[in-house]
Every structure is written in structure tokens, then in C-alpha cells.
């Protein structure tokens, strides 16, 4: 149940930029709802982010690294296009928006896109695919949310964000 709650917070917070744009675009109650949802989603992300500080850190050696910024760019295009070109929305448009966001949310969570969050890029983080050495002869691939790109052979300190997603941490 906790993982589902985390997934929902991550999904909603990935839409904070869209909610902000929509609140500027719609000069009615819908704009106010979008602003409120964006603020609540952002605050929930900050609370989730803060809770990670109490998790233990691990050190890994990087054996492979790839920048995954293109995943975020594709995600941005996918969620912006349906919303920006319309005039004032009708009740049917609003229903379509809600259904679209629900559909994207289901796909987002089930397809492990949960690590893609444009808001993290705004905060100065990058999305990377890294393979790390667990023990001699044993490696594992993770998605890494980090401020800088590690090089092959670097040792990195991380906290587990989700099962397959790590967050860069400062060395103790």
C-alpha cells in the first residue's frame, strides 16, 4: 500500500509543471483547481523527498552509465500536447482531461516510468541508467537520480528511492 501511495505522489508531482501551465491558461474554477492540485502534489513530493533522508545509504561502484534525459523529453511532449491548444474547456473537455490523466497514470505506474519526473530536472537532477558492482562478478542495473554524471569506476553513495531507482546521496 505504501508503494502505491509513493507511486501516486510521484505521478502527480510529474504533472506539477502542467498543472501550473493549466492554472495560467484557464481563467476560471478549473485554473484554481489546477493550481491547488499542483501545489498539493509539489508539497507531497517534498515530504516524500524529505523522508528519504532517514533511509540508510549504500556505496556502489559504477560499471556502466547512460544519460536517460531523452525519456523525460518524450514524456513532456506526451503530456503537454493534448492540453495546450484548446480554448476554454467544456465539461466534456474536462472529463477527457481527467480520463487522459488517469490513463497516463495507470501506464506510468505499471510500465515503471515512475522515475521520470520533469520536476526533478527543474530542481537540477538528471536521470541516469547505471550498472553497479554488488560483489565481485555480480552487477545490477538501476535508474539513478543524480545531480552529476558519474564516470566508470566512480564510487557513488545512494539511497533507495524505489526498488529499481536510486537517489544520489552525500558520502557520510
Please describe the biggest sheet, giving its number of strands, its sense, and whether it closes into a barrel. Answer: 5 strands, mixed, barrel
**Uncertain ranges:** none
Q: Which strand order spans the largest sheet, edge to edge or round the barrel?
A: 1-2-3-5-4
What distance lies between the first and last C-alpha atoms, to the nearest angstrom?
31 Å
Number of domains: 1
Percent helix range: 40-55%
Query: Roughly what fraction of the amino acids lie in strands?
Result: 15-25%
Series of secondary-structure elements, N-terminal to C-terminal: HHHEHHHEEEE
Number of helices, counting only DSSP H or I runs of 4 residues or more: 6
| Structure classification | alpha+beta
How many strand units? 5
Rg over CA atoms, rounded to whole Å, is 18 Å
Shape: elongated
pLDDT averaged over residues: 83
Could you describe the 3D structure shown?
This protein has 172 residues and is of the alpha+beta class. It contains six helices and five strands, in the order αααβαααββββ. The protein has a five-stranded mixed β-barrel with strand order 1-2-3-5-4. Helix 1 packs across helix 3 and helix 2 runs antiparallel to helix 3. The two termini are 31 Å apart. The model has no long low-confidence stretch (mean pLDDT 83).
How do the strands and helices of this protein lay out in sequence?
Layout: H1 2-14, H2 16-25, H3 29-52, E1 58-67, H4 69-80, H5 91-110, H6 118-122, E2 126-135, E3 138-146, E4 155-162, E5 165-169
Amino acid at each position: 500500500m505504501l508503494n502505491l501511495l509513493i507511486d501516486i505522489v510521484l505521478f502527480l508531482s510529474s504533472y506539477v509543471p502542467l498543472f501550473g501551465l493549466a492554472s495560467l491558461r484557464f481563467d476560471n474554477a478549473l485554473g484554481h483547481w489546477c493550481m491547488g492540485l499542483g501545489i498539493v502534489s509539489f508539497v507531497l513530493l517534498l515530504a516524500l523527498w524529505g523522508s528519504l533522508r532517514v533511509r540508510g545509504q549504500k556505496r556502489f561502484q559504477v560499471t556502466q552509465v547512460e544519460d536517460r534525459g531523452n525519456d523525460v523529453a518524450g514524456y513532456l511532449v506526451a503530456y503537454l500536447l493534448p492540453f495546450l491548444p484548446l480554448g476554454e474547456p467544456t465539461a466534456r473537455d474536462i472529463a477527457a482531461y481527467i480520463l487522459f490523466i488517469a490513463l497516463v497514470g495507470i501506464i506510468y505506474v505499471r510500465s515503471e516510468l515512475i522515475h521520470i519526473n520533469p520536476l526533478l530536472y527543474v530542481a537540477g537532477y538528471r536521470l541516469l541508467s547505471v550498472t553497479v558492482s554488488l560483489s565481485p562478478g555480480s552487477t545490477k542495473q538501476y535508474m539513478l537520480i543524480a545531480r552529476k554524471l558519474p564516470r566508470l569506476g566512480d564510487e557513488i553513495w545512494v539511497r533507495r528511492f524505489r526498488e529499481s531507482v536510486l537517489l544520489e546521496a552525500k558520502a557520510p
